[in-house]
Design the sequence.
């Protein structure tokens, strides 16, 4: 998406909601008294780990694939992904009966790669790092004629991700704050569009790992700069915030809270104990942000998007190495 491409709007989120309705699940909103007590707030959790392919990513991928004209769709789609977006795009492509190519970096989480492959994607390996991923993706695109569906900077993806917050508002009623994880910014910018159109008085707080806090830096300084070697257990949040995503979040006035990995792992365990949900660290970071900043959320009604649940049960972060 070039800087001259129009940014998606709230109407695009509404269009996405109608487009993906035959395919995406309306995930439940959950709560637990013990978590309310720990936070000193009313917490309502949007359980996107129960979405198809195990994460919110299916919303944006489905919207992007469903939007393609038949002749274009027939050539397939391509993306680069360490896991959840690749699995989501592969599923959306399979439902439409078209090929899906996914460029995956060496060292990606085993469980997520297995999920991508199980959805029928054609995998293309590359070296770690965004430059290598994008270069390999461009090669595959040139060789196949497939349409690129970027993991977070695609307008159709952003609009599709906004439907998670749209459903949260419909189920939870008035909220003082919505908290979502931020990596590349697809979910976050989609949430910003939805809040601007449906609940402008509701604040948007982004939870980001302290070891990969480029969104915090970008929104404070007005400059997008990658973290040279992002270090965090939140493997889904290591991406540098996308250019259109940054513009949307900057215009919305989103707030970012940085979270230490230890707090995220503790929150992950709390969610398993109290909601009976095993979520990714990249999801648990949102609860961790609330618990680490009690004064910010005290007495408020807080919606929290738990973004995904694709966890390797043999490599939980509290297990011995």
Sequence:
């Amino acid at each position: 998406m070039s800087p001259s491409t129009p940014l998606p709007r709230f109407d695009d989120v509404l269009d996405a909601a109608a487009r993906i309705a035959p395919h995406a699940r309306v995930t439940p909103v959950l709560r637990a008294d013990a978590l309310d007590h720990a936070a000193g707030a009313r917490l309502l959790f949007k359980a996107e780990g129960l979405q198809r392919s195990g994460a919110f990513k299916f919303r944006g991928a489905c919207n992007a694939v469903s939007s393609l004209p038949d002749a274009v769709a027939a050539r397939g789609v391509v993306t680069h992904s360490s896991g959840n977006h690749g699995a989501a795009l592969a599923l959306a492509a399979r439902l439409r009966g078209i090929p899906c190519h996914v460029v995956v970096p060496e060292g990606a989480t085993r469980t997520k790669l297995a999920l991508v492959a199980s959805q029928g994607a054609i995998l293309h390996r590359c070296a770690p790092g965004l430059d290598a991923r994008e270069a390999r993706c461009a090669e595959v695109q040139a060789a196949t004629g497939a349409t690129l569906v970027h993991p977070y900077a695609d307008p159709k993806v952003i609009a599709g991700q906004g439907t998670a917050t749209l459903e949260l508002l419909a189920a939870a009623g008035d909220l003082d704050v919505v908290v979502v994880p931020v990596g590349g910014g697809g979910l976050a910018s989609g949430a910003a569009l939805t809040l601007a159109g449906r609940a402008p008085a509701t604040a948007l707080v982004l939870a980001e790992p302290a070891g990969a806090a480029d969104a915090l830096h970008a929104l404070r300084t007005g400059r997008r700069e990658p973290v040279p070697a992002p270090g965090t257990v939140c493997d889904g949040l290591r991406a540098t915030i996308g250019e259109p995503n940054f513009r949307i979040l900057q215009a919305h006035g989103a707030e970012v809270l940085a979270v230490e990995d230890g707090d995220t792992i503790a929150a992950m365990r709390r969610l398993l104990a109290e909601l009976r949900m095993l979520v990714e660290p990249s999801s648990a970071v949102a609860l961790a942000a609330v618990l680490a900043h009690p004064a910010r959320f005290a007495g408020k009604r807080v919606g929290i998007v738990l973004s995904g649940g694709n966890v390797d049960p043999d490599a939980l972060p509290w297990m011995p190495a």
